[in-house]
Amino acid sequence: MTHAAPLAKQGSRNLGLERRLAQALEGEVRFDAFTRGRYATDASIYQIIPQGIAFPKSEADIAAALQIAAEHGVPVIARGGGTSQNGQPIGDALILDMSRHFNAIRDYDPASRTVSVAPGIVLEQLNSHVKKDGLFFPVEPSTASRCTIGGMAGNNSSGARSLRYGKMVDNVIALRAQFHDGEAFALGENPVGDNASVRARDLMTRMLSLADGHRDEIERIFPKVQRRVGGYNLDELLPARPNLSHLLVGSEGTLAITTEATLRLSPLPTHRVMGVCHFPDFRAAMETTQHIVALGPVAVELVDNNVLVLGADIPLFVRTLADITRGQPNCLLLVEFAGDDLAVLKRDLKRLDQCMADHGFADAVVEVVEPARQKPVWEVREACLNIMMSMKGDGKPVSFIEDCAVPLEHLADYTDAVTELFDRHGTRGTWYAHASVGCLHVRPILNMKDEAGVKAMRGIAEAACDLVRQFKGSYSGEHGDGISRSEFVEPMFGGPLTRAFEAVKDGFDPENRLNPGKIVRPLKMDDRSLMRFPPGYATPIPTATALDWSDWGGLGGAAEMCNNNGTCRKLSGGTMCPSYRATRDETHLTRGRANSLRLAISGQLGPDAFTSPEMKETLDLCVSCKGCKRDCPTGVDMARMKIEFLHHYHQRHGLPLKERLIAWLPRYAPYAAKLAPLMNLRDRIPALAKLSERWLGFSARRSLPVWRKSWAQAGKPATASDVKGDGRDIVLFGDTFNRYYERENLEAAERVLAAGGYRIHKVEPADGGRPLCCGRTFLSAGLVDEARTEAKRTLDTLSPYIAGGARIVGLEPSCLLTFRDEFGALLPKEEVEPAASAAFLLEELLAADIKSGVTTLPLKDQAGRVAHLHGHCHQKAFAAMGAVETSLRAIPGLDVRPIESSCCGMSGAFGYGADTMDVSLAMAELSLLPAVRKAGAQDLVVADGTSCRHQIHDGAGREALHVARVLDMALEG
Q1: How far is Cα 79 from Cα 50, in angstroms, rounded to an integer?
Q2: How far is residue 956's CA from residue 944's CA, in Å, rounded to a whole number?
Q3: pTM of the predicted model, to two decimals?
């Protein structure tokens, strides 16, 4: 049965295996179709539906899972972050997700610079733990924020600084593991007889004999480049006293299941400096690399023209690229030097500048010495793959020859030959990564939905393998063999060594229970039935969409933008994915949701899956923070996809009363405000709070916003003819939340704008009815038609003022930024664009006009006052946080301290739900609430989001202020 068929038809659910595992394991077991679909892919082009998922909590769980799976004839695959690029952790098997629970630091000795960890720990978490002692684990792939140590050991990972620190195999001291039947063993630096089980001792004696018997072939055929991870590490068994654990490193879980890794740590360099080398063409960069490496840098990383062009359109990277580029280079080499003497490192940069000049590139180095500037540069480099994957349409850069490595003296000729190879197949490639070690990640742009694209992949793979052999390189340089490259183990190593690799596999796993089809006896790399887009793939569900998805090529194209790179799994920094950070559950992850949507709209989860309760559960904890809109380098916009889903879901299932009350809030708010004393009784009478929880679903533990008398804007109504068009005309957009709950914010904004010399025009709806609305509450419930009505009404009223040169200024980020975002999916873009360009948050307006000299504010000195600033998710998504800081720093003496936080957890109505209250608080407790509690009693807490202020009030007992009130408080007079 091919994978084009619905999952429900790909074999019946293995209830016997599921039942046995559920009884035997402490950790959870899941065999439902949605979960299996979420674990069917990694960051490769492949998709194989597993039989089930287990989340082990202990070594006993792993042993039990292995034994029970063996009894049922089911293979087992260990999985970490699921970020591998060649199909390593997927298959028709039982998947063990090691990242969920099996992720502890076991033993840590700073003095000896060693640490023992469970394999599910994320590299960045490990490095955060040991950083306090001036140490780090130096194998740093670009996926460090989400890759696990177990996955790194499985792939024999390396990273940008391997020039100095080597690969994973160079930094592993010992491994504990289990055979396919659950028997535990340990391997390390000791001889075979020390601390090893009889079985392990006998097996390793055979492995040593096997390696020695093939010594001549190993020394003759194994590539003489640092980046060689293909096959099994028989070469590591040749030294007089080998580290036996190194045979397991790079084995991709095909030999044993690792349960603990003991690692060698390195001292953190005191200083790092970077030189950004500019080149007019790609070959020049490749030819110069070997001369730069001779200077002794820690890293030399390529950023090619594709990244420079695509990155210029990604808000997350625009500012950084502008900072490090001069003119219009074709490509860059990022060169890092590291050490303890900054003066020496600065001299290294001068030597780099001279080297570039000696090779014809004078004044072509931008020095980046400050750590604060280096960090975003590395973030661009780490996101290179995902920036390239942000290409819209069916043609994408495809991973299968992406980490071939050749000696540096052949690098320029090899890249030329590969470029010519792409030309012959009618495509082009993207290049980035480790120029320092001749391992450039190259991906041809192919359409894998088309048979021609798959045939081109096969042709390119075979020709590239020939080229690598010609240039004496390695076909697998960093990312392992997996499905993409295991077929090429024999062409690279020859028959005798391939038979030796098979003997290694058979010695450890004679029944082929562990991750079959990888490294030896491989699956076919171009078998379309194993791919994410199998024959017959299409996305016909739903038949018609409520929002405009034309920029993505349809809703299916929007879901397919997720390439499973797993950036959303990061546990710190940025915004996404706050629900995953709270639950650590793949269900509640941007990637997990995107996979479920893709499978549902392509019919692989059954005809009704798209509007099923299971899909609703998948999206329930998406708080529509828009963190993915900014943080996801491929541009997945889950918040918008959730609107589309809810539209169809509620059409089928109806709209519950709670969602109806939230959605229609702007329509009844004018009447509710007049009944404020009655509306506010709920929080004063506990019994009413209990009833609202039981009947409506609003948590009794959560206070509700306090209804107030409505904001009444000062002045007489204006007409469009009153707009003078000199840059000082403002329409203050009073959103529902500030208008009826916190009118003091709008009143403060009026005073601040007046003090800045702006003319505030009082604009009333063209139909003379209730106040204007952005439609945000309707969108949150999927009521797209009602939201479209609000958007149209608002634009009809404001357009004449905008045409005259007035700007629209708002206070609530989620409302005002709808002008720039969802309005364009609700109405024709030509109607929306003028308003989108004219709509500003208060802080954006002030920051821009203060900088340009259009306005000044008479502000009193606040010396000694501290303001702790929390950013609303939508402010972050639309790059507005810099404007908030700029506006606050216009206040003399005010010490502005941004809080490094993700979503506050309230996210509109999400935090009010009885069923989501705990998750809401868990999100807030990750960073926001602890930071607020540490603030001094006299410090200010600033948050521009209504929901953010509410969460801070309920969770920390502090009043948070909108920036308008902070500026108002600082006005002179």
Answers
A1: 12
A2: 17
A3: 0.92
